[in-house]
Amino acid sequence: MVEFDVVELGEAEYPEVGETAPDFTRPLVNEEFWEDVSLSDVTADGPTLLVFYTMDGGFPATYVWNELRERAWDEDNNVQIVGLSISTPYEHKTLIEERKMDFRLFSDPANEVAEEYGIDFEMDGMSGISEPRPAVFLLDEERTIEYAWVATEWPEFPKYDEVEAAIEKR
């Protein structure tokens, strides 16, 4: 059994419900290829669940994406699901293949998007290395935030039932 310490991340100042989520352009990876895409182009196609998660290969990413795949919100509701982490497009391709995911993943190795959203944190013991804290934002077509959840400790996972209720409420 792997043991780890819970790390308190504290409060974060992130975009709240009713605000417009910051736009960005980053490589968006799917099972076949990747290309630079803006968040506004993604949301223009319909309601979007934007999932910030820790780097690919760690157990939190595996748990989050397995749960989202099993819940199949993108199939049962009018919502698309996209992820974002510091992992490279190559790492995203591997995660998509290994997890048999149909989700698209934004690659942001410099963690600039998480910084813009106010949800970045420096990794313990790794000076100058940061990643996004786990977070979920449900966005409408104009990027208006309809639901927001941001972790206050690591590891912490989204409140999946709350997310589901927000999706179903729309």
Descriptive account of the structure:
The chain is an alpha+beta fold and 170 residues long. It is 29% helix and 27% strand. The protein contains six helices and eleven strands. The strands form three sheets. The protein has a seven-stranded mixed β-sheet with strand order 3-2-6-5-4-9-10. A two-stranded antiparallel sheet has the order 1-11.
Shape, principal axes of CA atoms: globular
What radius of gyration results from the CA coordinates? 15 Å
Q: How many strands in all?
A: 11
What does the average pLDDT come to? 93
Instruction: Determine the strand fraction and express it as a percent band.
Output: 25-35%
The sequence of SSEs as H and E is: EEEHEHHEHEHEEEEEH
The largest pleated sheet is described as: 7 strands, mixed
Characterize the quaternary organization of these chains: single chain
Helix content: 25-40%
End-to-end CA span: 40 Å
Which spans have pLDDT < 50 for at least 5 consecutive residues? none
Class based on secondary structure composition and strand pairing: alpha+beta
Keywords: Redox-active center
Organism: Haladaptatus pallidirubidus
Pfam families: AhpC-TSA
GO molecular function: antioxidant activity; oxidoreductase activity
